[in-house]
Every structure is written in structure tokens, then in C-alpha cells.
Amino acid sequence: MIQLTATPISALADEPIHIQATGLNPLQMVVFEASLKDEKENLFHSQAFYRANEVGEVDLECDPALGGDYVGVHPMGLFWSMKPKKIMTRLSKRDVINSPFQVQLKLYNSDDLHIRLPLAAPKASLTVERWYVAPGVTRTQVQEGRIRGALFLPPGDGPFPGVLDLFGTGGGLMEFRASLLASHGFASLALAYFGYADLPPQLEKIDLDYFEEAANFLLSHPKVLGPGIGIVSLCKGAEIGLSMAVHLKQITAAVLINGPNFIFSHPHEYHGQVFQALPIPLHLVSINALGLLEFCNSFGDPQAEGNRRFLFPIEKSQAQFLFIVGEEDKTLNSKASAEGAIEQLRCNGKNNWTLLSYPGAGHLIEPCYAPLCSGSWCSNLPILWGGEVIRHASAQEHSWKEIQKFLRKHLIPGQPSLL
Amino acid sequence: METLPKPAGQVKLTVTPVSGLADQPVHIRVTGLHPTQLVMFKASLKDERGNLFQSRAVYRANSAGEVDLEQDPSLGGDYAGVHPMGLFWSLKPEKTFLRLIKRDVMNRPFQVTLGLYDSASFLDDSRQPRASQIVERWFSCPGMQRVPISEGRLRGALFLPPGEGPFPGVIDLFGGIGGLVEFRASLLATHGFAVLALAYFAYDDLPKYPMEFDLEYFEEAANFLLAHSKVQKPGIGVLSASKGTEFGLAMASYLKQVVATICVNGPVTISTIPLRYKDLVMKPFGVPAEGVHVHPTGGLIFRHHETNLQEEQNQQRALPVEKAQGHILFIIGENDECVNSRRHAEYAVDRLKRHGKNNGRILLYPGAGHLLEPPYGPLCFASWNLSFPSPLVWGGDTILHAAAQEHSWGEIQKFFRQHLVLSRSQL
């Protein structure tokens, strides 16, 4: 009898699952398929071909996929290689507290598929749950003063190291990374800064006083360990994170994912002082063969002499930095930015940085097992984020662990050095 | 973003010619701008089903307030660099994965609206152009005839140049798209060839999903063309692309009346559906499902499946090109993501050489994708295809593909003229 198992059947979205099939014919070619519907009814799916061994078993932990959405030994490949049915749709969990993503796993005889379409019922199927919160994690809507966001607290009394979670130019509030961090013991504040609640609908400037308010809110919370907090930030969020790390002593550790080492488009303001932004010459944007916008070459040369005034004086920061770079980032030349920032630190005799640079990874480096989104609509524009499926997945797997290690090392006193 | 006051002079956009053949270039110029002003050109076209295709490019006016696309570089947009026809071959569908194909080739041209905008319009579609011009792109010329063909089993359309002829005859075969695709045949006819666009499945009463193809159908077509009063004897040419090259090459191998064959980006083995010729049945190679790779967009990439052509048994199943009495030209896009065309073509030419024959030649274009078509047609990187639930990735680098189309179209005509047009000594 054909059996399909997945262990554990319900887990955090960043935890691996062991998938196996038994009861097949010896050397039978089968297809595993994973599919899910997101909260807007968008379909995502992936397929991979495996050959059963002499006793009719397939074990995704040690057997190689022979084709489909990935090849090679990748126990979690079915998850991170999922693709949207509607091109340029990004997978993003909105309600992180009340429901998981339900992923259907199906097993087909390879003959029962004609170019990815099943012609017969699957031989076996089951549903796995992928949660964005661990049991006991709480979510509190935050509406204190000007700040708008969601605070995720691990179960227990704490105190817990505090982390501010910032996403990029899409606006609104992305909560899934903060909720996962809380599931790993961090008090995480997912902070919105435009396009949410009564915040400005468009991004016009970066008001560091607002972000300082958020940092102080977090630090003053009874369950948050001080004396400083960490930041986990992507893209524009990383630009803000770097700015905060320069100006605010409250920032002890900053994780900057694919962010610029300069201010672009929107000026920063802090305590009345204005820091100018590099304007983006949009005429240098290039449009790729499928019509997506590649911004990475449209910034001119931020490290050029004439653009020095837009660079962050990172050497003034007392924080520890973890730069995470996807070398196939098509939105920003993240590698040059990280290297530029690091060079500035070196020139000033500082070594408070670590660089993790991932070949093949794109812009949207997310917690592990998230499917690669190499292009999607953002603010009504079709943006190419870049990345190669397999290498992006391994970058996410590696960096997600490193981010947590880095935060623990610098936010929890007495943590042994594991990096 | 630059917003400048209206210039004192009149902004003038000229396109020459305003109406012309789709495979001919146009000269686009603007005068009356501010010196060094940044402007954006946008081209848009609606196909016959109302689908919108657009392209845009940003240029900087010179000190006299002029832009000349024949000498000035685009600074960004759908292409960069000096490319006088860039706005045409970088057109993209608003709905991803659509392919641009002209269906009515005789009665109506494609109308391309060229607009000149302030550069601030680059990402903002709401603004009005400073100047605009509609350009007509025709797929046939005055005096040409289109004769629908429904003779015996044959289904297609015959394009005859103006005049008495006789003209060198060519059969035009498209690929797995099925149906009848006419625009390449009609454009070739404007260059003095009598071209039969031949359908072979999913058209009229031809089956949508045939169980078998019959080379005698193609032989019937060759004989029909040769028998036509306006077609030169004693031999004809075949222009075939993609799946069509299986039949083109089979015709070259088995039919002596085929004296010049061009294979664009196709296999030299039969694929998926068997091909019969009288008593002989050529068994197809399939692509095992696990051999299909998936592009990050979800599109399917078929090129990676490697039929081992060196294996003895497979050699016997490849088309016997050594039997061909005419000349064969392989036109290959190196970035073809659908077929490993280069490998197939090299195998065929190598096989000819091993049989002491010298009648095969390869034109290899770096950066070009699968869908190499007449010049100025937009690169189609990936598109929906009737047999598949996901789009197929064809591949190609926009700029290199455009250059390949321009060059290969000239080579196609030269090859047919060289081998089909009778010289004085042959008459």
C-alpha cells in the first residue's frame, strides 16, 4: 500500500519536514507535488520527480530530485520552489496568529502527469500546516503615540531581547518575520512607517524621531531586555536601520539585508536636521525581456566622489552590523553597498561588522523555506528582485540561522560566541 | 525628474517612412526640444485581439535640442545604446506571456503609435505626449496576391509577388504553435518569392492532436507548388522553424524536388509524434517529464533534455540528412531555451561531413533565442502555447536577438536566391 508521510505534520514555517513515501514499485518514477492557496486565493505549487529505490521507497532527506522545480537532494525543495499560478505574485502570510498556511502534498505516478498536469488522482496525499507563531506567542496591535505596528512576545515572563522589524518600499505592515522571531525567543515589533492605518499613504521622508519613538517603546516594555535593541531590516527598511544605528545609541545590533549604504529618494530627518537623499535617475532603469524593472543599475554610482554626501557615516555607530547580501539582487547593488560601508568602517579602524554574501541569492531574502519571489508588483510597478531558486533557498536557510545567532550574541549578556 | 517650461520652438517628431513594410527600418527624429533635455519615446501597438504591447526609451537632446535615433543612444528603458529600431523590437505585452503575431497580413497593417514625452512620464502613464505619430507596418506590398489553398489534403495560403513571374518557390513551416502563421511567408513574398504558408495541424480540418504526421502531405505540397504556373522549376526551397524543421529536414532528405532548406532552431530528430513516409515510420524522441526545467517565473524550459545523438540506435532514428541532394542552412540562436538547437545542428552537419558531404552550413547567433523571426519583430522571451498549462520559455537577450533577426533575414533571402534562382548557364 502506498504511503506518504510528512513529519511533523504541523510545525513552524521555518522548520524542516521529513517527507517519505513507501509501498511503491521498485524503481518507480513518482512525482511529489506541493500546493497552497494564500489568503487571497492565489495558487502556488511545485513538483519534483523522484525514483523509488529497490524496495519502493523515497526519502526526500537523502534521495535526489531528478527534475521538476528543482534537482538534487533538497528535503524542503517542494516548499521553497513553489511558484505562483499568476506570475509576479508574492507569497506573504497576512494573519500570522490565527491560521497556518495549509500545504497539500500529493504523490503521483509520473505516468499520470502530462507536463505538470495530473491526468489521474494522486496515489496518496496529506496536508501539512506551516505556522508563523509558536504556541504561546502573543500579538498586540500597537497604537502608542505615533507608532503603528504589531508587537509579538514569546510565551513566558521574559525579559526577552528586543528586535525592531522593518520591511521595504511596499509599505503597509509585514508581520511574518517578526512573528517567527518571537517564536525563537525575541520580543519583536513589526513596525509600519507608511501606507498603514493613519500613517502617511506615501513615503515622503524618513522621520527618525518616529523610529526612535518605536525603539524607546520597545525598550520601555517590561518584557523587553535592555539596554539596547536589535534591528532586522530589508531594503528600504535596511536604509532606515542603518540610519537608526548611526544616530541612536539604543541600537545595539543591526541586521541589514540587501540595503543601501546611502540615503536614496527620501531625505532623513532627525531632531530637525535634514540628511539629503540621492535622487534616482529613473531614466537609467532598465526593463528586462519580460517587462520587469531592474533598478540595480539606476542609482548611478553612490560611492562616487560627488555622491559622498548621501553616504551614511557608519563609523559613528556603536552598533554591531550583520550585512546580508544577495549577489543576484536586481533591485540594488547590495554587494557594493555592503562593501562600501565595510570599507568606511575599516578606514576608521573599526571591526564591528560581519558580511554574509550569498551567490545566486536575490533581493527578497526571507526566513528559510519561503519560495523565491524573483519578481512581483510593488507600488504598482513590476519589479525584478532577482535570484536563482536553489541558491536563494540555501541563502535563506543559512542566513536565518545566522541572524538569530547574531542577535542572541549581541543582545543577551553572557552569550557564548557561536559565529 | 525634469519638468521644463514649454520650449519656444515647436516640438516636431518625424518618422520616415510613416508607412512601410514591417521588415524595413524607420528613421525617427525629434527637433524643437530644449538643449540637453531628457525625453522619453514610447511605442504602443494593439494586436488584432486588442492586446496592448508597449516599449519605452529615454534619450537626451543635443545642444540644438534634437534627438536622432539613428545616432543617439537610449539611456534607459527597454533598451540602452544606439538602436534606431529599438522601440519596435523591444515591445512588450501588457499581459505577460503573450506573443505578437500578425494574422491578417493583406488588408491591414500593425499601427504603432510613437509618442514623445517628458522624461517624467517614464513610470507615469497618465501624461499626454508632446508629439505623436502613427506608423504603419505592413506585411504585404501592393500587387501581391494571397491565394487560400484547399487542394486535396493541403491547407494553407500561397503568396505571389506582383508580376508574371515565374518566382522561386518556398514552403514556409512554423512550429508547435499549430494553425496557419502567415506573416513570414507574406514578408518573404515581398522580396520576390512565391511562398506557400503550409499548415499541418490544428487548422481547418487538419487534426488538432494528430497521432501521426505523413511526409506525403508535405510532398503533395512541394509538388503542388512546383506545378504552379508562377513558380520556377525544377526545385523549391523550404523555410522551417522549431518543430517545423523536422518536416523541413525530412523533406530535404527524402524529396529531390527540395533543393534548398533552412532550419531555424529546431531538432534534427522527430519529436513526440511519429512521422511516416510510405512504408517507413520514424519513431519520435520524447522529452521525459523530469527533463523539463522550470524557470523562476514558472515557465517551462525544454532545452536541457539531452537525447544522446551519438548512440548507435539514436543515430538510426535521426533524420538521414546525408540523403539530401540540396543545400541545408541551420540558423541557430545560442540562447534557445526550448531546443538545444546548436547541438542538433552540429550533429547534422557533422553527419553530413562523415558521409563526405559538404552541403550543410550553420549560422550561429550568440544571445539569440528560439523565436527568430523577420527583423524588428519584438523578442518573445516566453509565451503560452496551446498544449501546455505553463508558458514555454523561448529565451533570448533582447538586443542580441534583434541583431540576429536583422542579419539572418538577409541571409535567408541570399541562401534562397543562391540555390533557387536559375542562373543564365542553368537556363
From TrEMBL, chain A:
Q: Which residues form the BAAT/Acyl-CoA thioester hydrolase C-terminal domain?
A: 206-412
Organism superkingdom: Eukaryota
Q: Which residues form the Acyl-CoA thioester hydrolase/bile acid-CoA amino acid N-acetyltransferase domain?
A: 14-144
Q: Which Pfam families match?
A: BAAT_C, Bile_Hydr_Trans
- Family statement: Belongs to the C/M/P thioester hydrolase family.
Task: State the name under which the record lists this protein.
Answer: Bile acid-CoA:amino acid N-acyltransferase
Q: Which organism is it from?
A: Echinops telfairi
From TrEMBL, chain B:
* Transmembrane segments annotated in the record for this chain: none
Q: What is this protein called?
A: Acyl-coenzyme A amino acid N-acyltransferase 2-like isoform X1
This chain's source organism reads Echinops telfairi
Q: Which residues form the Acyl-CoA thioester hydrolase/bile acid-CoA amino acid N-acetyltransferase domain?
A: 23-151
Gene field:
LOC101654956
- Domain BAAT/Acyl-CoA thioester hydrolase C-terminal, by residue range, is 214-420
The family note in this entry says: Belongs to the C/M/P thioester hydrolase family.
* One Pfam family here: BAAT_C
Q: Which SUPFAM superfamilies match?
A: alpha/beta-Hydrolases
